[in-house]
Write a structure and sequence with these properties.
The chain is mainly β and 117 residues long. The protein contains 1 helix and 10 strands.
Length: 117
């Protein structure tokens, strides 16, 4: 089996719907150094149009996903100024044959994540 990839999506838990238009950056992390791998924006389904890392391209290591949520919540007038600005999730990939799906569940005042399938 060729290795799986990396994907994400963002759900607005306060509104009970996908969060569209949120910029997302993916970095590889090695010590104190970060290497930008991709930038994208969530679509109407709160997902990215393409996987962040394509099937077979995922390598073991530490990664960071950064979601820029301030403008999204500012546009909704959820809080003034938005309480959350950017959210960075750092995680480690060990099994490159497994798919890593790292969703963000976010409201104007809190967030959570998990490793999905």
């Amino acid at each position: 089996m060729s290795g799986a990839g990396l994907s994400t999506h963002v759900l607005d838990t306060a509104r009970g719907r996908p969060a569209a238009g949120i910029p997302v950056a993916l970095n590889a992390v090695l010590g104190e150094h970060r290497t930008l791998l991709s930038r994208t924006t969530t679509n109407a389904d709160g997902r990215t149009d393409e996987p962040l890392i394509a099937r077979g391209q995922l390598e073991p290591g530490t990664y960071e996903l950064t979601f820029l949520v301030a403008e999204y919540f500012n546009d909704l007038h959820a809080s003034d100024p938005p309480f959350l600005d950017q959210i960075t999730l750092r995680f480690t990939v060990a099994d490159t044959d497994a798919h890593y799906h790292v969703p963000l569940l976010v409201s104007p005042w809190s967030y959570s994540t998990y490793r999905g399938s």
